[in-house]
Amino acid sequence: MNLEPLDPGYVNERLSKPPFVAVPGVVNIRDLGSYPSTTYPSFMTRPKLMFRSAELSSITDEGKAKLRELCITKVFDLRSDPEIQRYGTPSPDIEGIEFVRTPVFEEEDYSPEMMAHRYALYASGKTEAFMELYSQILDHGGPAFSTIFRHVKDRPNEGCVFHCTAGKDRTGILAALVLKLAGVDDEVIAQDYALTRVGREPARQIVMARLAKIPMFASNTEAALNMFTCRTDTMIAFLMLLQERYGGVEGYLQKYAQLSPDEIELVRTNILVPSE
């Protein structure tokens, strides 16, 4: 797989188009709206309702104004305390926007042994390794995801952003759940997942500098580059896993996010709007 730097001209051109949104100081931010639903023909996902991104700690004043312009009222942070402390990336203060901590993993999930195993899975770059990682996210993420889905259920006119550090794995899994619930085609969901390859490119040097401080990656450039992996076939494999092991998106939300069928239907209704 080619994980060398992408052509800057291509990156800039792609980032200037939807679903990417220009928010100064934030990378990999994009709108989950305007995706057509194949399950519910003549409907699409609601624009300016749910945004996915990387962490927001470097957002500029202009970027803060842009979030308010987009009518975003909440930012859901999927990161854990040890992660924020390690990178020195606390959430910023933005007037009129509430930051809600919704960590997928607890502090005990960051033991040296567990982190070493997780890094080894990332370093391999293999689809089966990512399925193990993504199963961990599903198994632990129910309460965090529940908070976000309930926001959509109760406040469908208030936009939100959800993010982890890179906006790739935890964020990508949650985005897939949202789009799958809306009836978006699997290939389209996979393409949205793969866009992180472009969205994350402006932060490449920052990511590589962070990885250089971790012994496993400091001496293994290929393993470090595998951290950029976000292939469409990985997401297709995840959607199959979601169906086979968790009973699909509705089965998962009922068991792990403790949402009732009626609540799930209301979330779906709020996510969808008639196609333009």
Automatic annotation (TrEMBL):
Pfam families per UniProt: Y_phosphatase3
Name recorded for this polypeptide: Tyrosine specific protein phosphatases domain-containing protein
GO molecular function: phosphoprotein phosphatase activity
PANTHER family: TYROSINE SPECIFIC PROTEIN PHOSPHATASES DOMAIN-CONTAINING PROTEIN (PTHR31126:SF1), TYROSINE-PROTEIN PHOSPHATASE (PTHR31126)
Coiled-coil residue spans: none
Tyrosine specific protein phosphatases domain location: 128-185
Taxonomic lineage of the native organism: Eukaryota, Fungi, Dikarya, Basidiomycota, Agaricomycotina
InterPro entries tied to this protein: Prot-tyrosine_phosphatase-like, Tyr/Ser_Pase_IphP-type, Tyr_Pase_AS, Tyr_Pase_dom
